[in-house]
Amino acid sequence: MTQPASFAEVERLRAELARSQQQVADMAAAQEEFLRAVSHDLRAPLRHVTSYGTLVRELLGDLPPAVAQGAEVQEALGFLATMDQSARRMGLMIDGLLALVRASRAPLHPQPVSLADAITSARAALSPDDADRAVEWRVAAGLPTLQADPALLQALLVQLLGNALKFTRPVPQPCISVQADAAPAGQVAFTVQDNGVGFDPARAGTLFGVFQRLHRETEFDGVGTGLALCRAIAQRHGAQISATAVPGGGCTVRVEWPAAPAD
């Protein structure tokens, strides 16, 4: 017969619970401080860099034409352009970090979400730069219902579909497909496949890391936080995400998600 816990044991457990709660509170406070620093303190120097770079360009533009067209001034303008590009890139990196932290802290409100409807919403939220592109979309019928937070799921899908669009830009006839896939019991799976440039499969292990890029910046934009965000969102839902590719033969991202409970 199980003996009731002693008063001393109960007090010890309460103390351990209090310490754990304090650790959680300390971690939350540290994250709040990080968000404050990233969203304000780090952006102020960037604003100075871009603003004063513009002022320097204006000063150089006011020089006499013979001087302004000189090799030294043109070289200085090139340096300013690189400085401005790097500052803007750092701003995008800060935005990516903020999105990662917010996704990890946002309250999770899981509910059954139709993947087909979520795909439609995500496509509508994609960059207008791709609105006029002739892309063949193949969204299969019978996509599963996911037990997911609708806002976080949309953020994940926007990243996946946006990546597929980005890496099919050099392709004459871009095609992106979304379809259900086989999964173990208690799971559902779907894939997002494109016929874009692909990547070296030997480097697939780094694909979902923060600031990891498999293509040169001069080829494709981005700072390497989108897929890290996808992984963070998937992990919060107990899901798994992976990618396979062939150089020049496209990429397939597979998402394995806990099944939504039956009605």
From TrEMBL:
<dbReference type="Pfam" id="PF00512">
    <property type="entry name" value="HisKA"/>
</dbReference>
<keyword id="KW-0808">Transferase</keyword>
<dbReference type="Pfam" id="PF02518">
    <property type="entry name" value="HATPase_c"/>
</dbReference>
<protein>
    <recommendedName>
        <fullName>histidine kinase</fullName>
        <ecNumber>2.7.13.3</ecNumber>
    </recommendedName>
</protein>
<keyword id="KW-0418">Kinase</keyword>
<dbReference type="InterPro" id="IPR004358">
    <property type="entry name" value="Sig_transdc_His_kin-like_C"/>
</dbReference>
<dbReference type="InterPro" id="IPR003661">
    <property type="entry name" value="HisK_dim/P_dom"/>
</dbReference>
<dbReference type="InterPro" id="IPR036097">
    <property type="entry name" value="HisK_dim/P_sf"/>
</dbReference>
<dbReference type="InterPro" id="IPR050351">
    <property type="entry name" value="BphY/WalK/GraS-like"/>
</dbReference>
<keyword id="KW-0597">Phosphoprotein</keyword>
<dbReference type="InterPro" id="IPR036890">
    <property type="entry name" value="HATPase_C_sf"/>
</dbReference>
<dbReference type="GO" id="GO:0030295">
    <property type="term" value="F:protein kinase activator activity"/>
</dbReference>
<feature type="domain" description="Histidine kinase">
    <location>
        <begin position="37"/>
        <end position="261"/>
    </location>
</feature>
<dbReference type="InterPro" id="IPR003594">
    <property type="entry name" value="HATPase_dom"/>
</dbReference>
<dbReference type="GO" id="GO:0007234">
    <property type="term" value="P:osmosensory signaling via phosphorelay pathway"/>
</dbReference>
<dbReference type="GO" id="GO:0000155">
    <property type="term" value="F:phosphorelay sensor kinase activity"/>
</dbReference>
<dbReference type="InterPro" id="IPR005467">
    <property type="entry name" value="His_kinase_dom"/>
</dbReference>
<dbReference type="GO" id="GO:0000156">
    <property type="term" value="F:phosphorelay response regulator activity"/>
</dbReference>
